[in-house]
Write a structure and sequence with these properties.
heterodimer; A: mainly alpha; Rna Polymerase Sigma Factor, Chain: A; 3 domains; 14 helices; globular; B: 248 residues; mainly alpha; Serine Threonine Protein Phosphatase 5, Tetratricopeptide repeat
């Protein structure tokens, strides 16, 4: 049967049999994201997996990420002629931003972790230069209120923004240190992106509903402390 | 007041009912106290996020202080990543090597393979004409095409007995012998045909073909000489002979 088929294909027709195979191998069809992900180096995948976990595992992942590419700091000093402090700030902000994105599932693995991280690093360097040019010295990343108010109309945003601008951020930070360790830890975990359920697991609360109630009480406490100023 | 925070928290976590969610913006516009609560909630979130970042940065600062050498070296280690495009390039190289191999070896097909291919293409069937009157040669063709080679041979040999100078009968007798693997008899008939002075006589070409197929010691060399003769003297089968000599 095989011999018969060989005869049917014929010598001159074998090229037409092989060529489609070549196109399948070299075709311009872009593989999907999931196709690339398995090709990340094992240690990069481990770091990403750790950061998407909870508690100490996440903390370990964050530290591994920082240590892994810390040589960027030296590059920033020599390539970008930054001071050691600015280079550290630049790199730390890059890592913090990367951690937030990885934890939120924004890292798709289209490139290696290093390439992706370096693009963030470079963009932050450009921001820093721009801010320095406009005499805004701080490159410390702060979350934007407008990011949280994306869903509301411009009019509502304007009302809230004016009220937020009146808030004394420094006093608020001081009061945060006075609300008690438990409240502070709970609120910081929440601000770090942990869900109520995850916080319940970490802080030994019985349920996520208990965490939510405690969280709102802590916010209320913070408000009372702030307003009592 | 706590209920305000629950409501605000529900709005930002998108857990409110559709009605409550719709009233949120209106309430901000209508109720200054509520608007202040929303502003405080957001300020607190911002302050908390800043604090989280400050703490992380402090942790990183300590890590660096504990081990300043981490900035000196690329700690990535050995890259084990299998890049997709590298794999594709390797596959492309393999395919090219395969093609090169194929083209090289396809040029140097053996004489037996060339003979086999020719026979399976040209001698699979013999040309039966569509007519009302049938002659003995056509009957031989018919038997051949039905796979009755012995009967076909008998038919052609009978014709030769009656007409010893019948060129066609001798030609097809030689072909049937070749098909049956009786190469000596085939050569005997093709040698007889060589004596015929015809406008298109494939006898020498068939003789070479039979030698290629027989493949006994000296046959290849003799076949090559005959093919060269076909080419040089512009005899029947010249085109095929030229191709074969290129691949020889």
């Amino acid at each position: 049967m095989i011999r018969r088929n060989k005869k049917i294909i014929g010598k001159q027709n074998r090229f037409f049999f092989i060529i489609p195979v070549v196109f399948v191998i070299l075709g311009d069809e872009q593989p999907s994201v999931n196709f690339f992900k398995p090709f990340l180096p094992t240690d990069e995948r481990e770091i990403i997996d750790s950061i998407t976990q909870n508690g100490t595992e996440r903390k370990r992942g964050e530290e591994r990420l920082f240590n892994r590419y810390a040589y960027f700091i030296k590059e920033a000093i020599y390539k970008y002629s930054l001071s050691p402090e600015d280079a550290f700030d630049l790199y730390s902000d890059t890592i913090i931003s990367a951690i937030e994105k990885i934890a939120a599932g924004s890292f798709e693995g289209r490139s290696s972790l290093k390439t992706w991280l370096y693009s963030i690093f470079h963009n932050k360097y450009v921001d820093l230069m721009r801010k320095k040019a406009t005499n805004k010295n701080s490159i410390h990343q702060t979350s934007s209120i407008s990011d949280l108010l994306l869903q509301v109309s411009d009019q509502t945003k304007s009302i809230i923004q004016k009220l937020v601008d009146k808030t004394d951020g420094e006093v608020l930070r001081q009061r945060l240190g006075q609300i008690g360790d438990n409240c502070r830890k709970l609120l910081l975990l929440w601000a770090d992106g942990y869900s109520d359920k995850e916080i319940a697991g970490q802080m030994d609360y019985k349920t996520s509903d208990v965490v939510k109630t405690s969280r709102l009480r802590c916010l209320e406490k913070l408000k009372q402390l702030y307003r009592s100023t | 007041m706590e209920n305000h925070f629950e409501y605000i928290d529900g709005w930002f976590h998108e857990t409110l009912s559709a009605d409550d969610a719709r009233q949120f913006e209106q309430k901000i516009a209508d109720d200054p106290e509520f608007a202040e609560e929303v502003a405080f909630y957001l300020s607190a979130v911002q302050a908390l996020k800043d604090e989280v970042r400050r703490e992380k940065k402090e942790t990183f600062r300590q890590l660096l202080a504990q081990n300043p050498s981490i900035t000196n070296e690329n700690r990535e280690g050995k890259v084990t990543r299998m890049r997709v495009y590298q794999v594709a390039a390797a596959a492309a190289v393999l395919v090219c090597v395969f093609f090169a191999w194929y083209l090289f070896f396809s040029k140097s097909a053996t004489p037996v393979e060339m003979a086999d291919n020719y026979m399976s293409e040209k001698f699979k069937t013999l040309p039966v004409t569509m007519g009302t009157e049938r002659d003995s040669i056509q009957d031989g063709f018919q038997l051949y095409n039905e796979g009755k080679y012995d009967s076909s041979l008998q038919q052609f040999e009978t014709i030769i007995q009656k007409d010893t100078g019948n060129y066609l009968a001798k030609k097809y007798t030689g072909i049937v012998y070749l098909r049956l693997g009786n190469y000596d008899k085939a050569i005997e008939y093709f040698s007889q045909l060589e004596k015929y002075s015809l406008f298109a006589n494939p006898a020498i070409f068939y003789h070479a073909l039979t030698l290629m197929k027989r493949n006994q010691p000296g046959d290849k060399q003799k076949a090559k000489q005959l093919l060269q003769q076909v080419v040089d003297e512009d005899l029947e089968g010249k085109d095929v002979a030229q191709q074969w000599l290129k691949k020889w």
